[in-house]
Design a protein that fits this description.
- The protein has a domain of 117 residues: 2-Layer Sandwich (hypothetical protein PF0899 fold), CATH 3.30.2320.
- With 311 residues, the chain is of the alpha+beta class.
- The chain has a seven-stranded mixed β-sheet.
- Strand 8 and strand 9 form a beta hairpin.
- The longest helix is centred in the middle third of the chain and has 26 residues.
- 28% of the residues are buried.
- The chain is 17% helix and 28% strand.
């Protein structure tokens, strides 16, 4: 005899089976952001104008000419260069309706604050990265002479690291702490760790000296300690994807904010909008900050243009 068995899909009681809503939000995938870690950070004081100026004196060349007896030499003339920057305002917000705040199961304001905070951090990191790209010293991997000529074999390997270190040292660039810093994409991590050159890649668990690690440090090679970030520019030259990792020395770039206008998260509750929100229908969550990134010496950072074998 056939039984008339009611199931969870029976049309007669579609609402009998409830849905359970997890109030704990799933985590989000976020890039490791490294560019701000190695900037020289400056603040423009209040009531000091809207522009900051840095001055660098020019070194004198060596003097190999002895003095003439009884003759006073001509004096030297000082020379200098100046770099200026103006911090600019940035900000974003989300508006939340009164019904959303009243009916939402999860804490919407808290979630909005989290995603806005990451947007701000990603924006700052990207602004710094783009500023470096426009100004620092270029190095094209392998035999290439431009991004357009880079081929699949022109990867970031031990010879490219040595070349970048040479370029920095010949300009008398100082390291950041005890080493230069490489900010690289995971693709470059793959290529460096695949390099079997003797004395090349050294993982952090094989360091023979103890001391503090850079945030996110993954290994070192030829006087460069590497940190990893997926927020490295990637462009396609029509043949391959071209990556733009960096090898950086001390004092290469800086960031400038305006005193009292650094990063602020701002929450406006329902009813705070005045005549712009006459029915108390909106709450907002946002952030604002003043900021500018500036290359202080283009010789102190190398942008390596390369392909990758990580495909």
């Amino acid at each position: 005899m056939a039984l008339n068995t009611n199931t969870t899909g029976t049309v007669g009681f579609p609402n009998a089976i409830a849905k359970y809503y997890f109030k704990k939000m799933l985590d989000r995938l976020e890039a490791e952001l490294r560019f701000q870690d190695y900037a020289d950070k400056y603040t423009l004081p209040k009531s000091s104008g809207n522009e900051a100026v840095w001055t660098r004196y020019t070194n004198f060349a060596a003097n190999t000419t002895p003095l003439s007896e009884g003759v006073t030499p001509n004096g030297l003339t000082l020379a200098s260069t100046q770099i200026s920057a103006i911090p600019l305002p940035f900000g974003d917000y989300v508006a939340l309706s009164d019904f959303l705040l009243a009916e939402a199961i999860d804490p919407v304001i808290e979630s909005a604050t989290e995603v806005l905070a990451y947007r701000q951090a990603l924006s700052v990191d990207t602004i710094i990265r783009n500023t470096l790209h426009a100004a620092v010293t270029d190095q094209f991997a392998g035999a290439s002479t431009s991004e357009a000529t880079i081929t699949a074999g022109d990867v970031f390997n031990a010879p490219e690291v040595r070349k970048a270190v040479f370029k920095l040292r010949k300009e008398n660039v100082r390291p950041v702490g005890d080493s230069f810093v490489g900010i690289i994409h995971p693709a470059q991590s793959f290529d460096l760790q695949s390099d079997n050159s003797i004395g090349a890649w050294l993982e952090i668990n094989k360091y023979t000296t103890t001391g503090p690690l850079y945030k996110g440090e993954i290994g070192k090679m030829y006087g460069v300690r590497f940190v990893e970030s997926s927020n490295i520019q990637i462009v396609n030259n029509g043949t391959v994807d071209v990556y733009r990792p960096y090898v950086i020395g001390k004092g290469a770039y800086g960031t400038l904010d305006l005193a009292g206008n650094n990063m602020k998260m701002i929450t406006k509750q329902l009813g705070s909008g005045g005549t712009e929100d006459p029915l108390d229908q909106r709450s907002t969550v946002g952030f604002k900050y003043s900021f500018v990134a500036k290359v202080l010496d283009p010789k102190r950072a190398i942008e390596v243009h390369c392909a990758t074998a990580a495909v």
